[in-house]
Amino acid sequence: MIPHHRFDGPPGAPVIVLGPSLGTTLDLWEPQLAALTRTWRVLRYDLPGHGGSPAASPGLTRGLTHGLTHGLTVDDLAAGVLALLDRHGLAQGDRRVAYAGVSLGGAVGTALALRAPDRIASLVLCCTSARFGTAESWRERAALVRAEGTKPLVETTRSRWFTAGFPGAERYLGMLRGTDPEGYAACCDALAAFDVRDRLGDVRAPTLVIAGAEDPATPPAHAEVLAEGIPDATLLVVPGAAHLATAERPDVVTEAIVRHLTTTTSRRTA
Predict the structure, then answer these.
(1) In this predicted structure, what is the pLDDT of residue 93?
(2) Is 228 helix (H, G, I), strand (E, B) or coil?
(3) What is the signed CA dihedral for 187, 40, 2, 53, rounded to 10 degrees?
(4) Angstrom distance (rounded) from CA 192 to CA 162
(5) Helices H / strands E in the chain, number of each
(6) Torsion sign, CA atoms 2, 52, 17, 270
(7) Which of 34, 125, 144, 261 is 20 to 30 A distant from 205 in Cα terms?
(8) Where do the AB hydrolase-1 domain residues begin and end (predicted)?
(9) What pLDDT digit, counting tens, does each position of 181-213 carry?
(10) Residue 41, H or E segment
(11) Is 242 exposed, middle or buried (0-12, 13-18, 19+ CB in 10 A)?
(12) Which domains does the chain have, with CATH numbers?
């Protein structure tokens, strides 16, 4: 499935793909857009059932496919991004792209770097993990959302995504409210099965790992696992930020991303 997506920035510029978190849309990256589009062609996409992307089929995510139980996986999401790149003739031959992702979007980035190392020139993993909690907790959340929608998650999500008193929370929580329950639940299934802790040493893209200092969902300890496991990765812990550090501290995060991209890629790689 090729996700809903959009391009911004000058045609012919090097490309960076931006992946959103569970419960948000491609608009999560708007605080970074002005800075990135000065020199980059920015490709943003929506996860299944989020924003403009259709939900993954319930038959794929919950039922039996040709007699086998098959839930959506992070690798499936990475395959969708690769199909998107193929559609637009990107990251082929010696033309590579940069990738930055938040949370589940970051997991997709790790999967891409492992699955297609020759297509990823630079990687930013923001507020993400090599393993997101227990499979049971994600399956429980998926079951809740399939039964009651995303509304029961809103207040607990507020405290995970943002530090207390962050004034811009409602805009992002509105993205969660608008997410299709099956699409959200399918992404929970994908997170339940995701675990690449023993494969981090195979990531070859120059990597910046960013953590929110007050992130309860993927705390700095998760970022340390990524930074220590990925060869030559750099770690930045952002003060005054929880899980959506791109939204809460765009000043620090945007500067770090631009600096990383500038030093690890060139116009010839995209």
Answers:
(1) 61
(2) helix
(3) 60
(4) 23
(5) 11, 9
(6) positive
(7) 34
(8) 20-255
(9) 999 999 999 999 999 999 999 999 999 999 999
(10) strand 41-45
(11) buried
(12) 5-265 (3.40.50.1820)
